[in-house]
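Figure S7 source data.
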Amino acid sequence: MSTRGIANIGVIGLAVMGSNLARNLASRPGNTVAVHNRTHARTQELLAAHPESGFVAAESIDAFVASLARPRTALIMVQAGAGTDAVIDQLAARFEPGDIIVDGGNANFQDTIAREQRLAHTGIHFVGAGISGGEEGALRGPSIMPGGSAESYETLGPILSSVAAVAEGEPCVTHVGTDGAGHFVKMIHNGIEYADMQLIGEAYDLLRTVGGLEPRAIAEVFAGWNTGPLESYLIEITAEVLHHVDPATDVPFIDVVLDQAGSKGTGVWTVQNALALGVPVSGIAEAVFARALSAQPAQRAAVRRTAASRPAPQTVGPAFVEDVAKALYASKVVAYAQGFDALTAGAEKYGWDIDKGRIAKIWRGGCIIRARFLDRIAEAYAENPGLSTLLEAPYFADAVADAQDAWRGIVATAALSGVPAPGFGSALSHYDALASHRLPAALVQAQRDFFGAHTYRRTDREGTFHTLWSGDRSEAVVE
Ligand code: 6PG
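Tokens for the predicted 6-phosphogluconic acid complex:
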């Protein structure tokens, strides 16, 4: 049987994410899905396990390309890195102008920009698409963040919309911007994911160490929070994890998991890029550092041995659980505000027209950071697209102000109890720094002028000045 040109989309790379996305695509009316994997046995396994998908299987890359209808659209779902380039080269050698190559992996957006440039002269569209939601999301509906040309989105938009999660009746996909914008936005999503997970971890630690609650009781607390303003996928799965009992030992599962967190790099990229853009994403940075610190067993053992006696947990009252919830909420507001600041700065630097309200909307469903909260962010940007920070939006300004006393109390309690809470603490410092009438940056700038003649500006008149510190300490006008 000839399979020439019948599939409107093809998927290359059939590990779990690729297979699940292919199955999701095939389950939607109007899609015929070609599939290809370097090892053909995996393709055959997928076909055998899911005959209902009606896949067009291709053993060779030539057969795969031949099975695609024009414009040919191929979604690459291989491990980010060198493998991606090899597949792009194979497709580019066979595709024609107008055809579309989509990289759905967690690529670095700078690589995506370079790859698009590399293909530009061929007329083939290269699209970097962030896809969030893990294995389950890929199968049931992820949040999708495609970049690339607007022209490619005319073909791609309906296909991606057919498989994306739906939130409030809207598919969680939008053309986020050109070239690497999709992977940039996915990177920021992951950075926020890191911060959110860290904050939840700190809340758990406080409830356990200071509040004295057992994992099962904390699971109930999180389940309760998941019915209010904190409602989110990460809160929901936290309740499930804490509820789980290890079948081998019959102790709470959380107590048999080694307390060292890994990472695959997107959090680090977010912080590196934010540093280069001059955007303080301290919540994301603290989350990255907290994972790194956890994975230093030798240092931890050494300081455990040499540290002074540990403080006893503070005594807390009945409002403690509610106060932790407020501190968590306020810290989350700051972490998301920082993530959106990085989006703004990236869009400006790379010339992307990123609609932050739309981004908040497509993160409401399917992705790891999906949360009730994102509706509020979308509303804030709809009301005022020019917000200088989310913290300025009336809803968030009020929410953070209301949480303030509890937030300060929790950060102080954590410090006095010896519970590390870098996420809560740095979020509060970020807020306080923005809210301060005067920052010690004045002193830092004066020091810079003292030892390096780096100049300063004055509060009372225009211009740039330098004090002759090693001379008569008179002031010179520099410009
Ligand atoms: C998603 C996740 C996904 C992946 C993270 C994990 O949006 O579906 O973010 O992309 O699980 O990259 O990142 P770490 O391994 O770095 O924690």
